[in-house]
Amino acid sequence: MSVGHAGNCRCRASELRPLISLILMMGMMNRRYQGNHMNHKNQWSNVPNKVYAAVVVGTQTMEIQAFDLPVIGEDEGLLKVELCGVCGSDPRIYRWTDPKRFPLIMGHELVGHIERLGRQAAQRWGVRVGDRVIVEHLFGCGHCRWCLVGEYRFCKERQGYGGTTSSNVPPHLWGAYSQYMYLAPNSRVHRISEDVPAEAAAMTCANIGNGLRWVRTKGGVTIGDTVVVLGPGGQGLAAILAAHEAGASAIIAVGLAQDEHRFEVSKLFGATHAINLEQADPLETVLELTDGLLADVVVDLTGATASFPLALDLARPMGTVVVGSNTGLQEVTIVPSKIPLKEIRVQGVNTHDTPAVRAAIKIVESRRYPIEKMVTHHFSLAEADKAVRVAGGEIQLDGFIKGVIVPN
What we know:
Order of helices and strands: HEEEHEHEHEEHHEHEHEHEHEHEHEHE
Number of domains: 3
Number of strands: 15
Number of helices: 13
CATH superfamily of the largest domain: Medium-chain alcohol dehydrogenases, catalytic domain
Helix content: 25-40%
Structural class: alpha/beta
Shape: globular
CATH class of the largest domain: Alpha Beta
Largest sheet: 7 strands, mixed
Oligomer: single chain
CATH architecture of the largest domain: Alpha-Beta Complex
């Protein structure tokens, strides 16, 4: 039945009441549906029409660009970025020379709040509009061999955030060097407490999650082990924390004179000893500390070519060397025979997975460690270029460990 002006209606008022009630109910349902896509304040006026992001347009070239706020479907979401860490891999991405990889938006160490959310996405992720969440770096296609066995890190489509997808690909917001970030249907989204400092929350996935997976799951560190961590940067500190959580009895941080402030923080995360390479011979010191046994597990996280040969020297017979140090295309000179002669297991590692992230959330929320102390410098979105150059060592700042970008 069509409804026009009251004078044109052919039905009595009593007959119209059920229809009017139905129309009102449909209107309420529509408003609820729209509410699933509103910001956490439920006021569309507070959501901007344009989103600003720091876009890498070429090798070591970045500019602030404006994008339309994306329309969010039933199985998607939109994140308002609270904080984004500058990963040690970001300077390497910034130095890429293949023009086909640009433009892109970096940033995968993040925390933020759900701004808009589709119904299916809400059910899949178990979150609501306004929830504070962290997001895993990679998520994969969801249906290839690697995704089906849970190893989505090796998905050939390499779907994820912070450089894996060009910002030319709609809806463009594929990184957290941005005010808002798009949440694709296969994204791996996890709630995290509002009580956690933003700096600690942003470190959960790609630092603490990495450390737990690399040291415990892949490295096999267990109760009573001696662990040597080469490189006390952000990833190194996370590895130290993970070794402490796994029950290692001796945790030795190895670095340079410029790392003295990092050595101090490493003690808060469980390090029992620190070796300054410029003041002491690391092999002799580790031999002394272990009564000649050397380390059960050595974790190489320096990003320097000299560290892998050293790691092989510091590992005991039948020990493990975990290699998370990415030296790009640089060649490393080693004596291969050291590996079979000592029967050393060499384990490569890269990024985190969902079990590691879930464990990391529990540790971060427990507040057993002052994880926020890993973050020493804050940068605005307009300072993203500087933030990346600081992380890459081009610009020196006193006391630097990790930087974060505050985009809003």
